[in-house]
Design a protein that fits this description.
alpha+beta, 8-stranded mixed sheet, 16% helix, binds fe (ii) ion
Length: 458
């Protein structure tokens, strides 16, 4: 009896402290990169490859379709039609803009980006690329019209890379069949981990994610492994391969850079920020965000979600406090505008925070650490996609009170928005079946239903 009471006391005490460090011990396995030859290009002359799509406008009526052709610049168009339309005369075309780039001793193939406009909401479309016997066929479904109670499910993946673990993460996510759009937290190919930033790794990465990203949009956020800064080999243009390969609709949200922008999708307003661009006062990113946040209409898009690469709250020894300067600049706005969720990557493990803020800094009162704040976002670090550098398994020993749950495992998450008040969130480690959730919580919307949440973590 006393043993039971003691265990209960310890459990409750742990919960009251707010922090759980998972006892799950990940089976030791290095992040071994899959060889290039395992990502061959599709067969046939000049077959289109590395097909990927993302939202092409502010509200979800356009789609940017991107692909690569290896030998010829032509054809420079995508053919598309509504999936239930059998009349061939109803097929349409969107023309691409085409780019190439050089990176040290690498010359890219032809990279195409075509924006399909004026799509119908909530409709399945087929699209084909290439010609003759090298034609390749794909499909996507447009989101419902933007509205406050529109259910929608986002997948969350960060720091993916192209290792065996990366493949497990993506397969696991796809097996759930629930995700409609991926929010990707940055660090794509890890090409920069190879001599001269071997840009063929950008190609193999494009082939790797095609099984997901050709069929559902990924909302892209740039990480440090997209910088590709290498002055020692004459490469001084920041984000060069990334910007050529992954186009986003930044102008639709009056942004001046593809590295920060926003979109509305279903019942969510999603803001993408750049941890590796200037963000202090008077910089373009600061000014854009300052103007963007008051525009968010919670009656139209109740869920306000921010994506960035470097986390603002992180209790892992890896990259500890790297996000601190951005936190100091942007956190007061996140609280003021009641941001629901902030997702980040960078740290190769999983962590979810309490709703806390650290904006009351006051020397006289001695207030200098995070406190519970119902207007604050929950910060989730989900840089556990697979990467090439291994798992970040060194947490700060005494779990800070702002940290609700943390675990050093690879995985992904699902955010199932149900209506304007409730969203069901689950995190899934790669070793489990999809029916198992390592971390589960009902999130309550900060604008419509700002009650305290409770979680269950296994
Ligand atoms: Fe990173």
């Amino acid at each position: 009896m006393w043993r039971l009471v003691t265990i209960l006391f310890l459990l409750l005490n742990g919960v009251c402290e707010g922090g759980i460090t998972s006892s799950y011990v990940r089976k030791a396995a290095p992040s071994i990169e899959i060889p290039k030859k395992k990502f061959p290009p599709p067969p046939g002359y000049n077959a289109p490859e590395q097909v990927h799509i993302t939202q092409g406008d502010y509200t979800g009526k356009s789609m940017i379709v991107s692909w690569v052709t290896p030998l010829e610049e032509q054809p420079k168009y995508v053919t598309y039609w509504e999936a239930d339309e059998e009349n061939d005369n109803k097929r349409n075309r969107a023309r691409s803009i085409t780019t190439t780039y050089r990176y040290y001793n690498y010359s890219s193939d032809y990279i195409h980006h075509a924006t399909i406009k004026r799509l119908k909401y909530n409709t399945k479309y087929m699209y084909v690329l290439g010609k003759g016997n090298c034609t390749r066929k794909f499909w996507f479904t447009t989101p419902p019209e933007v509205g406050p109670d529109v259910p929608y499910t986002f997948g969350l993946i960060g720091d993916l890379g192209q290792t065996q673990a990366s493949n497990q993460t993506l397969e696991h996510y796809l097996a759930s069949g629930k995700g409609q759009t991926v929010l990707f937290l940055g660090d794509f190919s890890y090409a920069d981990a190879h001599p001269f930033h071997d840009n063929e790794k950008w190609d193999t990465f494009g082939r790797f994610i095609e099984k997901s990203n050709a069929y559902e949009p990924w909302i892209y956020c740039a990480g440090n492994h997209e910088l590709d800064l290498a002055p020692e080999i004459g490469e001084q243009v920041l984000f060069k391969p990334y910007k050529h390969r992954y186009h986003v609709p930044y102008r639709a949200s009056q942004s001046t850079s593809p590295l920060w922008y926003s979109i509305k999708r279903a019942s969510a307003h999603i803001i993408v920020l750049s941890s590796y661009s200037a963000f202090s006062i008077y910089t373009p990113q600061y000014r854009w965000l300052k103007e963007e946040l008051p525009k968010v209409n919670r009656s139209e898009t109740p869920w306000l979600i921010v994506l960035m690469h470097s986390p603002m709250y992180n209790s892992n020894n890896y990259h500890y406090k790297e996000g601190e300067t951005m936190r100091v600049v942007f956190e007061p706005w996140f609280v003021k505008y009641k941001v629901d969720l902030v997702f980040a990557g960078h740290v190769h493990s999983y962590e979810r925070s309490e709703r806390v803020s650290n904006i009351q800094y006051n020397i006289t009162e001695g207030i200098s650490s995070p406190i519970k704040d119902p207007s604050a976002p929950v910060y989730i670090t989900i840089g556990d996609g697979g990467n090439i550098e291994g798992i970040a398994d060194s947490f700060i020993e005494h779990q800070p009170s702002y940290s609700a749950f943390r675990e050093a495992s690879f995985g992904h998450a699902l955010l199932e928005i149900k209506n304007r008040t409730h969203a069901f969130y689950t995190w899934h480690r790669n070793q489990d079946s999809m029916a198992v959730s390592g971390d589960t919580i009902w999130f309550y919307n900060r604008y419509w239903f700002p009650k305290e949440e409770s979680s269950s973590s296994t």
